[in-house]
Amino acid sequence: MRMLIVEDEMPAYQRLVKLLKDTLPDGVIAAHFDTITETESWLAQNNKVDLAFFDIHLADGSIFDLLKKHELAFPIIFITAYDEFALEAFKTNSLSYILKPIDKKSLEAAIKKVNTLKDWFVSPSNNPNKATTTKKRFIIRFGEHLKTLQTEDIAYCFSENKMTFAKTFQGQKLPMDNNLDTLEGVLAKEQFFRINRQYLINLDAIVEMKIYTKGRVMVTLKPELPEAQIVSSERSAEFKLWLAGESE
Fold first, then answer.
1. Which candidate, 125, 77, 85, 124, places its Cα nearest to that of 102?
2. Which of 13, 179, 203, 218 is spaced 20 to 30 A from 76 at the CA atom?
3. Considering the entire predicted model, what is its pTM?
């Protein structure tokens, strides 16, 4: 997820970045600006943003001045010290309105709303005319060299240090151009499942499963990892349906 941040208070910006690393480990901050002028200039040349975080009052004006002049295609989360602009904010592409100081719970709720709506719009069941594409292979780059990776050779994909890798059944660790969100959308649903924020696994990579706390599942994978992976609580029910071949 590529993100734009417009915030002129450095402590608030630094806190947001810290919370985003925990909430969206695969996210990338595409740009950060502290003025309307810089933001407007950048948006004129760049529109590939998945989500924006906007403060309202900036040194050279209000963010609403920019929004009145430009129709933005991406969702917005407002982060501000003022609560009186909430109504005006929701006349825009706003999905959430967070008051400073930012807390992790509010940010997680806002991100969850973004992901829920994204999933709804891209779901074939909600968009019957939307074609779905299942990738059969990927191109892997090694400096000047290229190789192909067949999807059936992927045991699992995972994020690490803001990068995404695939681990093959043969034990190779390969860099991927796509993040986990993208891979989740193009790999066959009946074969691959996103068990948590870090891991997207192949059904054939599962060696053992055990019941964990609060109804969650502990999964041991091959090739072996230093520790078993835990299916996140919000995905556990869907995971069990997937195992039984009953998920969509």
1. 77
2. 179
3. 0.52
